[in-house]
Amino acid sequence: MYADSDGTEDGGEGSILPADESLRENGGGRPTLPVDGTLRKGEGRIRHYRWDVKYEYKSPDCFKKLVITINGRSPGPTIQAEEGDTVVVEVNNSLVTENLAIHWHGIRQIGSPWFDGTEGVTQCPVLPGDTFKYQFVVDQV
Ligand SMILES: [Cu+2]
């Protein structure tokens, strides 16, 4: 299954790049994928997202209120990945006055405990105005 691949690395939909450098086009352009669309185990892709977290006014229940959004959405965007893929999420904290960490519930974080997103336990918070790059392998789906 392929997720969207609009070719951009920005926005909530993310982009898909083969983790194996040999599968990429020269020059780091748009990635090439096997013609039949299948990958063997160990040929996971890189799922790259850029998220901007901020407060926005939304009316989820018809009453306007401030909510925390990711790329303008609340709830935030969905990450689509398969077992063996590497998820990379660059999170920018635009909350202005609040620290931030993202916890990836259900991801075991084997070999990457510092990306588990528990502020003060496994990572320092992402300070207002800062960007933090989470990177982990999806070892089971
Ligand atoms: Cu959890």
From TrEMBL:
Disordered: annotated span: 1-39
Position of the signal peptide: none
Biased composition (Acidic residues): 1-12
Pfam families: Cu-oxidase_3 (PF07732)
InterPro entries for the chain: Cu-oxidase-like_N (IPR011707), Cu-oxidase_fam (IPR045087), Cupredoxin (IPR008972)
Domain named Plastocyanin-like: residues: 53-140
Protein family membership: Belongs to the multicopper oxidase family.
Protein name: Plastocyanin-like domain-containing protein
